[in-house]
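Task: sequence in, structure out. Protein: Cryptochrome/photolyase family protein.
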Amino acid sequence: MEVTGAARDDGLGDPALADFPADAPGTRRWCFADQLGPHFLDDPHQEVLLVEARSVFRRRRFHRQKAHLLLSALRHRAAELGGRARFVQADTYAQALDGVEEPLSVCAPTTWAARDFVLGRPGVQVLASRGFVTGEQTFRRWATGRGTDGGKRLLMDDFYRAARQHHGVLMDGGDPTGGKFNFDHDNREPPPRDGRSPAPEPWLPTEDGIDEEVRADLDRWERDGDVSFVGDDGPRLFPATRRETLHRLRDFLDHRLAAFGPHEDAMLAGQPWLAHSLLSAPMNLGLVDPVEVVQRAEQAYREHDLPLNSVEGFVRQVMGWRDYIWHLYWHLGRDYRDRNALDARAAVPTWLAELDTADLDAACLSGVVGDLRARGWVHHIPRLMVLGNYALQRGIDPAAMTDWFHRTFVDGYDWVMVPNVVGMSQHADGGVLATKPYASGGAYIDRMSDYCGGCRYDPKKRLGEDACPFTAGYWGFLDRVEPVLRGNRRMAQPLAGLRRLKDLEAVVEQERDRGTDPF
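Result:
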């Protein structure tokens, strides 16, 4: 992945991108619901303000399990802190803060809107952000001069290498452990042929009295018509406390990390977890410092001789891709979310918005949407190559898809989804983040999953009643965006193939008729 400097908004004069101080000991620390770990405090005895704002759930229609997880984590943290916490349940953040007279400090929030809000509040001192391996100022120093004429591009791989060297992660002296920084080529295997997960089932948390209270409140809010949700209710599947998060991390390192690498891009019907860590949600809640996650992963490698391709692949996700996306959210500026280079204008279809699989015959879509409805989570390949690929091919508005991903995934936040969806998934930035669209036909899904075997659609066919919507949709997509992509050297071969299709006109008409209807 690369980012061109031409798209960079350096934020000069933007208060949200100021060089904030590192700490403010002696103040009460206001922690947002994604800042719940001890690393957001300056000392273990610091007093804390936690705010539960009900209006958040009225503004957006979240997945039921996401709303549950957020409230459960916030209330669990308040209970853990006991008398050190002032826990305010209010309609809005402003209403809650109006009742607080003492000075507050807060680590810089994770969205533009939240930073603007805290910067506008009197008596609130904003500190440098936490919860990532590489700090914002460090990234800006690294990025300075890149992407300009004669400079280097902002490649994720370059950033990841620099971060590994700077933090001394998986390094043997001045060289990367194993002789190279990236073992991705070893991690692209299809799913196991026997259809079984390559790892044992993950550890899952047990709900408690706080979860019961959260569920009762959500039920009441829905009955009152105050809020509405999408997706199925519990049980809670993701950690809501630091203790639970560390338990899941240990379980992953001890029983699942070794199998993670080879099949990390694979999909299996009925096996949603595979060997994935399931740490994105608690990490994005701030329940564990990613620095600690990376250190423990390297320690497990050193002590237990785990496969390096699995360990490196996991480390790259945490301190490479996750950090990279975080920094690009700020680096690319406030208006990046509005990009729509491919002029995609279709609305999110009702069946997708409602996670309704009743009329879906495409096995991959039905399986992935069903998994999302049941758990509020699928791993990165169903997100990118099924859900994102579908939206890209069908021309769904990227801003609407960004909002949908944000609301529907338990680990979805604005900073997560804006670069991932606008740039990586929907190519709406015109090639700023990814040099070509992540569009593919049914052959990729057939190779990397077991969905196609029993599907009524044939991944090899692009025309007819049994034509795969992804295979046909791929050519329909290329035909629609060909004028925009004509100058893209990485698209030269696919576009040449498009021009050779003798049945192109019929395929385009077929896919135009299909539109975003269920298939």
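Residues 4-11 have pLDDT under 50 and may be disordered.
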